[in-house]
Structure formats: C-alpha cells, structure tokens
Amino acid sequence: MPNLTILSRDVQQYCDALAQISLPELTVLQASDDPQSIDPSRVEILLSEPDLAAQVLPRCHQLRWLQSTWAGNKPLIAKPKRDYKLTAVKGIFTVAMREYVFAYLLYFSRAIDRFHPRQGEPDLSRPMQWHPPKFGTLAGRTLGILGAGSIASGLVPLAKAFDMRVIGLNRRGLASADYDALFKPAEKYQFAKQADYVVSILPDTPATVGFIDQEFLKLLPKHCVLINAGRGNAIVEADLLKALDEGWLRGAVLDVFEKEPLPSQHPFWHHPRVWVTQHTAAISSPQAVAQVFADNYLRYNQQQPLNYEIDFDQGY
Predict the structure, then answer these.
(1) Has this prediction a pTM greater than 0.85?
(2) Where in the numbering of this chain does the D-isomer specific 2-hydroxyacid dehydrogenase NAD-binding domain appear (predicted)?
(3) Which of 1, 119, 137, 265 is the one with CA 20 to 30 A from 80?
C-alpha cells in the first residue's frame, strides 16, 4: 500500500484538502512542517516545498516520487540524487499571473499614478487644477514574453483582447498561432528591440542565469517596462540598476530576486523606477496543489506516466 509523507509549511491545509479527495490505497504516514521530525527511511511518496524536501532528500533511500508544491525546483535539481521521479505543479498559476501582469500593464499604459496620487489626509487648502496627464493605451503595443511556456499561455488571449501584438521567446523558438512571433535565446536582442513591455517568466536553469543583461536592457525602447515574475537570477541586478539610472527603460516591476527576502538596504527598495512586489505574483494554493497531486497519484497508482515530470538535465 503506497504511503505519503507531507512536509510543508501548510501541512494542515494539505491534510484537510487530501481528506476531501478519494485516493485509493494511499496512507498518510507522516505529516509535518519540520524536516527534523521526518523519518526519511519511511518516505516513499513525498509532497513538499522544494527547500524543505532538499533537507531530507539525501537520506530518503526509499523515495520513489516527489510531488513538489512549487513551479521552480532548483533546490532539488541541484542535489546529486536523481533516482526518483520529481514532478512540478502547472496549470494553477494562470489566473493569478494574468491578473498580476495586466494590473501593471494597465497601471503604466493609463498612467494611473499621474492622475491624482494621494497619501494620507487630503490637503483641502491646496487648490486643484484640471490638467489631465498624458497616458496611452495597450492597443497596438507589443508584449514580449520571456519564457513562452504553460504559464505564459494564459497571458496571450488577454493581450489579444486588448489588441496587443504578442511576441515570445523560449528554448525552441517554435512557431505558434497564438504568438505574432517567437524567438530563440540566440535571438534575444532582436526580441528586445520590439517589446514595449517585457514579462519574464523564465525558469531557473543554467541557460537563463543573467539572461537579461546590459546589452538586452540597452536595446529596449525607452518607454519599455520590465516585469519579472519568473526567477530573480534571470536579471543581472547591477545592469538593471544602471539601465534605470540611465533612463534606458521606464521602470521595472520585480517580484523575484537573486536573494530572498530582498535585503532591507537593497537599492531596489528605494529606486523611484522600481516596484517591489515581494514574491506575490502567483502563490501556490494548497487546495490547487493537492488536486494536482491527487491527479498524479491516480496515474502513479496505475503505473502511468506522471504529469509535469521534471527533466533533471533540462532543469524543468
């Protein structure tokens, strides 16, 4: 009979969610938020955040399958142990990512911050004047998506609804009817020249580290806004600060960083052209992740290929 270990900061939510789902023959053997309380010799199936799982992984000699609760799995991929199946979560971030990205696309295109910014109590003694600021529209603008994969696919229909042109970049650069153009990594500078807005959803792989560098930033149109909701190490932070200081682009919305939490004295916190959103773009819901696990467990129990299995060499 298959046994499950749950190691998660949201352990009770996972236990409650799985209790509502019929999973034949599955026994929850261990459940904790503390890696030190887990007996690794009893772990066959593990449902866990990658950073917690990495602390017990080397000693889990009976592990057959690890269902990660995150989309990014660098802490696990970096470990030498690879004699098990590792699956990620996909298909649950689309709505949150779509809302996050288009909240800022509309914020900048409609110049929302320039209309009537108000902090604290209104100053009734200050006379107000009718001087509408300049603003634009998303229609006719080009949205460039770095990491044109499954999460990005949810952005394209909404961009088209706003009459935007959409270009993407991914490892293969294969043609797609959903995109107006797709580029390979070697064509990233050509991509940069065309993008009015850039959204990075790049995964964390050796090929994507430092992908957004000084040359890339220099080629962006000066009105461009960069949104990074993928991985922090995709951006060379010193290059981005220089680009912002030199006026190479209008601004940057940053959800992820090389080091998290972002140090309190980091220049990004105080830069007038940076919006820090503290890794909130698309948070995993335990209920949604539990359903991904349940669907995969039924496949596991029937010895079928698992959904979203990670290729350790590719890194995703």
Answers:
(1) yes
(2) 103-281
(3) 1
